[in-house]
Amino acid sequence: LIMAQTTLNIYVSDQIFNYALRLLGTFVGALVGMVCWYIGSGHGNGSPYGMGASVAVFLLPLIFCRIFSPPQYLQGVVMSGATFTLVVGYSWLDEHIAVIGNVGKGWSVAWRRWVLVMIGCLASFVIMMLPPTSGRKAVRLRNASTISSLSYIYSHLMASWISDLRAGSDEKDHIQGHDWRVKFRGLICEAGEQLQALRAQTAIARWEGNIRGVWPKEDYERLVNVQAEMVGSLALVSVCSVGSRDKD
């Protein structure tokens, strides 16, 4: 149930990317956990000294990846660490504590963990397909929205600049002229944040399948780059307008 809820996403491309990360992370974590357990315990029930040395060696790269991994791959890294902990921890508990349910050790714990993750992913996949929401359509709509926002920012800049020049040269009008610059700065920052999110969504949208042909990922990335250049150009124009106004 937890795995099904945590793998749900709004768009199909995001969910498929999430599946790939979580399944790969679970596989790596189960593999590393089994290697750690069998190196530290061999065919026995787990020596505290051997397991301590083995866990210390394998835990260092897991912690390093957890701290320094890129945010877009963090889910897979967390799944690797959680699966590693479950495999080693349940194996140790099963061999040293009397419990009602015998989960086994090493491989027995690893394959159960893998099956549970697969069941959760399958359940969320069924929910996602009723009905599916295209991530590529969302990319197109967000591109249209950001382009519309850029046109509004440009018109706002030109109108404010012209009205600022016509306002007069006295100090009162000069102070009031700074109001549009504060609003313009907020619009520029908002557009930059939208483009940053759009860039990440465009990269993930390639995971979504399409029966109509290959999705032109490079064209959409180029479109996002052009919009980012437009934001930078508008910001420079506003700086030039402020400088020319201050000189006057």
TrEMBL record:
Pfam families: BRE4, FUSC_2
Gene Ontology annotations for the cellular component aspect, listed alphabetically: membrane
Membrane topology category: Multi-pass membrane protein
Keywords: Membrane, Transmembrane, Transmembrane helix
Subcellular location: Membrane
The DUF2421 domain, residue ranges: 132-237
Keyword Transmembrane helix: yes
Record domain Integral membrane bound transporter: where: 5-127
The organism's place on the tree of life at top rank: Eukaryota
Transmembrane spans: 20-40, 46-64, 76-93, 113-132
Main location: membrane
Protein name, as recorded: Uncharacterized protein
Origin species: Ceriporiopsis subvermispora (strain B) (White-rot fungus)
